[in-house]
Amino acid sequence: MKFKWYALQTYSGKEHAVRETIEQKKKDLNWKSYIGRVIVPEEIEVDLKSTDSKKGKYVVSSEAEVLVKNGNKIEVGSLLAREMPVCARESGIIRSIKNFYEILIETLDHKNRRLYSIPGSTKIEKGIKEGIKVRKGLFLTQNKSFPVIETGRILKIEKGKEVQILRDNGRIDKYFIPQAVFNKEIVYPGMKVEKKQVLAEGREIVSKKEGIAEINDYGVGKDIIIRKIAYRKMFPGYVFLEAKMNDDVWHLIRSLPNVVNFISAGGEPLLVGNREIRAILRRTGYEKYPEAEIPKIKINLGLRKGEIVKIKSGPFEDFTGSIHEIDEEKQEVKVMVTIFGRETPVVLHASGVERID
């Protein structure tokens, strides 16, 4: 007997609870040979307007190694980027180590970034914080000693140490080491350092929130933005179950809390069609599918709103539906297909559909 797919109706809002209960029963009874995958189909929606500057935006240098890509799903604790280590440019002796702030300001056109190094003994002006716009001439400190050179926005305020190294030739080099990677056991006054010696490992940037990554590279630096996401149930009140159906499985599932019943006819649970379940699994990421190659040249769409077309590739391959919208500029069409009794909009490149004669 092969595994087949069934739809299970649940009380609204209890879909995940039912899925977890079925998974636990499968484990307790050792029913892996009878119950397969249990899914609550959900789509990820990205909120392009949401950016929590304290948790969702990370500013790194142009030299930093970015470890994620646009569109990657990010978990809390995911490693996003790694800055280059702080290395001595020339050999010498560490003359002093002092507390410092670094304030990074970017011009409003994103073309320039200026770094202000401020001694830790100097008090920052009240109201100066990350994310705010600052005008030219505004003082960053209470003693009026650090004016803003160009109007812009504060990207980062970071505490750390300024390490001064007296070179063998008498010149002084200055290095800023972020507080998070400073180690007083390996960097201290009077210490002899060699050329290219590592003073501090590169700072690692770790995500503080879940979301979808958006990378902006402005040449003078990079921003990693983690956009807020929400999970939208494709079929509220339903759980999809892969099973080798028999009386024991049928009775067990129907007896679970928050389960209403199988979608059935004449008392028999109905199978979910292969085409429908394939589309659901692909749309929600449970199964991979080959991406269609998008033509590099602009094509003459020749399509009309309301026209019935067949989808040639992607999660909804072989489905038919009517064209709801046409975007000539993007060469895209929105097709309304019916799946599991519900109309679902699908956005495709125009080359991904064909007319039905």
Word description of this protein:
With 357 residues, the chain is mainly beta. It folds into three domains: 4-41 and 234-272, Alpha-Beta Plaits; 57-227, no CATH class; 289-357, SH3 type barrels (Roll). 9% of the residues lie in helices and 43% in strands. The chain is built from three helices and 27 strands. Strands 9, 10, 11, 12, 13 and 14 form a six-stranded antiparallel sheet that branches. The longest helix has 15 residues, at 15-29. The radius of gyration is 29 Å and the shape is elongated. The two termini are 39 Å apart.
Describe the structure concisely.
The protein is mainly beta and 357 residues long. Helix content is 9%, strand content 43%.
Note the topology.
Elements: E1 4-10, H1 15-29, E2 35-39, E3 42-47, E4 57-60, E5 65-66, E6 73-74, E7 79-82, E8 86-87, E9 92-107, E10 113-119, E11 133-134, E12 152-167, E13 172-178, E14 192-193, E15 198-200, E16 204-206, E17 211-217, E18 222-233, E19 238-243, H2 247-254, E20 259-262, E21 264-265, E22 268-269, H3 274-283, E23 308-311, E24 320-327, E25 332-339, E26 342-349, E27 353-355
Antiparallel strand pairs: 1-19, 1-20, 2-19, 3-18, 4-18, 5-7, 6-17, 7-16, 8-15, 9-10, 9-12, 9-14, 11-12, 12-13, 17-18, 21-22, 23-24, 23-27, 24-25, 25-26
